[in-house]
Write a structure and sequence with these properties.
This protein has 9 helices and 9 strands. The protein is an alpha/beta fold.
């Protein structure tokens, strides 16, 4: 069972192409730090929901303290605004300033993230390289029982047990203008998440039988992307903007 992790770097890629290529899931970059929303996050998520394609999400982290990690969790949760994310929400830890932290300080960052995500009913997770993050922190030390996503670009699986293994950065999918990271399922609990019959259980999810893409919504998204309006619009923070966008698209769909 394989999937990919995707962001704005995967120019031209669609969830439908992933599904047709035989992939089972995707992990979508949602945010970075405490102020950035990835410009492809909403489009990827919306298409995945419409196709019933299971997804998780991640934040590319810059946090070096527990307080900063909690703030990154808050920013992502505000951005997500209750949308279901059945495969977990991960903290991507790969910045040198993070990996140079003492063990206890680094563990505090990971725990603060996981606690913040779990308190809102989502499955927390942590992403890191086997040769960097997981040599400093043992996954068993995470007190929340977080999902573990390990990067090791090799034919040989990670030595440390994990739920998800990023095995390569050279996957190729027709229609995408570059390589994608390939992720392989390594635990039964993650497999069950992917195979779960309902991928949209959150109470804030759109109701069953939601109509297909509204042309007005698609045009709006294209215009916003073209004008670089995904992170800040007229002084409105990205999280607040995503809330406003969701309300706008829901209203348009209610009129169809």
């Amino acid at each position: 069972m394989k999937g990919v992790d995707i962001s704005h770097y995967q120019n031209g890629l669609t969830i439908r192409q992933l599904k047709q290529a035989g992939y089972d899931f995707a992990i979508i970059k949602l945010t970075e730090g405490i102020s950035i929303v990835d410009k492809t996050a909403f489009g990827f998520y919306r298409e995945a929901y419409e196709l019933g394609f299971p997804v998780g999400g991640y934040c590319y982290s810059h946090a070096v303290t527990a307080k900063e990690a909690a703030a990154e969790a808050g920013h992502l949760l505000d951005t997500l605004n209750g949308f279901p994310m059945p495969l977990g929400i991960y903290l991507d830890v790969e910045e040198p300033k993070q990996l140079s932290l003492p063990h206890d300080a680094l563990l505090a960052v990971l725990d603060a993230w996981c606690d913040g995500i779990a308190q809102h009913g989502y499955l927390p997770g942590v992403y890191g390289s086997e040769g960097n993050l997981w040599t400093k922190v043992n996954p068993d030390e995470l007190r929340t029982g977080a999902l573990i996503w390990t990067a090791k670009w090799s034919r040989t699986p990670p030595h440390t047990p994990c739920d998800l293994w990023q095995s390569s950065d050279k996957g190729m999918i027709a229609g995408c203008d570059g390589p994608v990271d390939i992720d392989e399922v390594r635990s039964e609990r993650f497999r069950k998440l992917v195979e779960a019959p309902s991928q949209s259980a959150a109470p804030t999810a759109p109701p069953e039988g939601e109509p297909g893409p509204n042309p007005s919504v698609m045009v709006l998204q294209l215009l916003m992307n073209y004008n670089g309006c995904w992170d800040r619009v007229d002084g409105i923070g990205s999280a607040a903007f995503f809330k406003a966008l969701r309300a706008f698209t829901d209203r348009l769909e209610g009129e169809t």
